[in-house]
Amino acid sequence: MHSVFFRVTLLLLISNVLRAQDEKPLKAADYLLTLDNSRDSLYKQVIVGFERYLAQHPEDVDVRLEHCELIGTAFYDAYDDYNPLEREYTNCVEGIISDFPTNHKVLLYQLAHSWGDSAVTVANKILEMNRSDPNSWTNQELSIAYQKLANTYEYNGTPDQVIESAELAQSLNDTLDLTYLLAQQYKKKNLYSKATELLLSSIDSADDNLMSYNKAILLLELGVDKKALELFQLIQKDTTLYIDNGKIAQALIVNEKYSEARKYLLRDLSSSYDKSAVLHDLFVFDYQHSPPDTLLATYNQLMEESFHNDTFGKYRFMLLFKAPFRGWKFNDIFKLVLFLLLLVIPFSIPYIYVLPIDFISRRFGIENDAPALKSSNWRLTDFWIISSFVIVIDVLVWMIFNYPDLLSTFFSDMYVGEENKISLNQANQAIAYFFLMLIMTLGYLKKTDFRVLQSTEWKIGKSIGLGMLFAFLFRTSYFALARNGILPGLEASMLSSVMDYLKSINQYYHPFLAFLLAVVIVPFYEEFIFRGIILNSLDRRIKFIAANVIQSALFALLHENTSLFLFYFSTGIIVGWMAKKSNSLVPALSFHATNNFFAFIAIMRM
């Protein structure tokens, strides 16, 4: 940024040139050339003045720093982040650092203009100097070093490093407010209650509007919609601040202020770069809260923007319930056909992995009349059917709750905004998926299939007890190895693939429902599907070891969490082996329920 001195001088030059012109003004390019030449000349004069002074006073640190600052900013272009004098500036700064390696002002200047690993090195040098010579640095100076560390670790460190540095900075300078940064880190650690508590305690009318806006967005992501809305309403008159009107609309919808919410959605539509993303939100809103004419108009606008906005006809299907005989076009029929195909195609996907298994078993004559669960009658046909239903439910729930996201997987030009991790939509999506999986499993099982809960090898007490014991030992061992960096996927809950869903259910419904889903329903249908139907249908056609590996891999993939793939795969191997040894699903159910119970407790404590 140019100094006031430069700006005033250039304005004087312009006025003098204009006053000297009695003739027709020159072209703009000629004036700009004059300005550039004058600026260069003035810069050289100022630099010569600095150099003359420093030749006589080389120990004047303040003037040497001002000299470097002038070189660094005089011709700096903020738009392109380019400085034609970058080499001269670097040499100037390096010269001061070389001459005054322990000077406080020099080190703080170097710290302010350092990033990444360089900033960490300079900050640690300041802290080490203070440790060697206590009280040589003021608390204010030390707080600057810790704050720089916190800001740097935010991008190339861990949340714990950021929290430690930020808290030390605040303890040394009580006027410093880093609660927003701290809340972000606690959110990354999934400590949502701590993050919320920090934000609510730091809301201050003295905050600038940008900080208030950032806090409002974070509160909205944490599910504190009412307080977020209050902050949004305080800052909405600031015309200099970019405000995501869609976020405000979301907060208004949760607080049942529908007429106001639609105004913000329309405002967002007029200012948004990607109108399709806003129109998706507007259509869903109008379907719930607007009359049919308004809904139909929004749908037509959505289609005018892009045919891909409703390729699979979900919205056209929804219109059947609000305006069944209005607005029909020829391509709407095509969309409904694609909608049906999207539900039918998953039934052919299992052929990709079922047919090779069938071929291998027939080719090498592998047959086993004594599968892991001897009382089971499941075959490869059951494996194919149950796999198809699992895929259909996944696609159906995806379409109902994340339709734009589904479209974006097929069409690269579709933009999808990031959804809040804690939201009512997340809660509803989880409830729908878990209950649909339960209903599908119960509907598929015959009465005789429940004989797999009986055991001829282990008594019921032994089955439950060993399942609980193995779960405890496995979690303890995995945590210990992960903490030491030997195994990947150290998560506070070991259930991170569904953690945000359970947190959303707890936030918008009740903890008991989250408990019922995590500890009872999910273990029930997953054990019957993976250690029941899949493992035993495979065990009839291939060796048990291969069957156990395949079902464990599918079990890990279902959780859609690459960082915890090994954890879920190992879980599948262990409970598959327990099912084989006990000839019962009870130990596997006990193991699974115990593991999820510990994870549920960890999540609720967050």
Automatic annotation (TrEMBL):
Could you name the domain of life of the organism this protein comes from? Bacteria
Q: Which UniProt keywords apply?
A: Membrane, Transmembrane, Transmembrane helix
Q: Where are the transmembrane segments?
A: 333-354, 383-401, 427-445, 466-487, 507-525, 546-579, 585-604
- Residues of the signal peptide: none
Q: Which residues form the CAAX prenyl protease 2/Lysostaphin resistance protein A-like domain?
A: 511-598
Key word Metal-binding present in the record? no
Read off the InterPro entries from this record.
CAAX_protease, Rce1/LyrA-like_dom, TPR-like_helical_dom_sf
**Does the UniProt entry include the keyword Transferase?**
no
Protein name listed in UniProt:
Type II CAAX endopeptidase family protein
